[in-house]
Amino acid sequence: MISSHLPPPDTALILVDIQNDFLPGGSLAVPDGDAIIPLVNEAMALGAFHVIATRDWHPANHCSFAANHPGKEPFDSAIIGGLPTTLWPTHCVQNTYGAEFGPALDQSRIDYVFSKGMGEDVESFSGFYDARRKPTLLGEYLRETGIRQVVVAGLATDYCVRATVIDALSYGFPTSVWLSACRGIDAQAGDIDRAVAEMEAAGAVAVRARSAVSLLALV
Ligand code: VGL
Ligand code: ZN
Hints:
The protein is α/β, with parallel strands linked by helices. It is 22% helix and 22% strand. Zinc ion is lined by residues 56, 58, 64, 91-92, 117.
């Protein structure tokens, strides 16, 4: 009998916040956000990655929602926890349609989902921490699964992708950011470019592969 012993994938593909509210028609739609879905579906279908999805999963009274700050509008700034923070339209409220993954995303290929942003009184963008200090256990999960490197794709480049990439590096994982499969908000023109520069300065490799197969050759 011939048996094959394929090693388990030791590269994690982390899909950041591919949720209805960040897609066209959503409350905090990231321009062109749906363009990444065919690419990430193709990458998952290769079977070469351990696939993690993160989701923004806020309580309705979350401090990052402008609606919870009388007199404030979305994209105004407010001091939260002593730090100037951007306020958002209400988005990704737990158990609502806006918080669900986009229907075009092939969820059958996702190995594990991590939720974040559950602490009502702290903004948190990274998939690795909820409320900045409380680990989501994503870092521990990756270590225990034997993951040796990380590729990040998703929404939004200048917020949750950036924070997740920087924390993956801080956990010690060589990390690539697959820019063809990321889109950003660019609330201030240049935010996306600055985020890419910050990720690279932190040690991330920016990958611009236009297909999943070419991504595989680069990571
Ligand atoms: C995000 C703004 C607010 C993101 C989440 O997923 O990048 N951006 N909450
Ligand atoms: Zn959020």
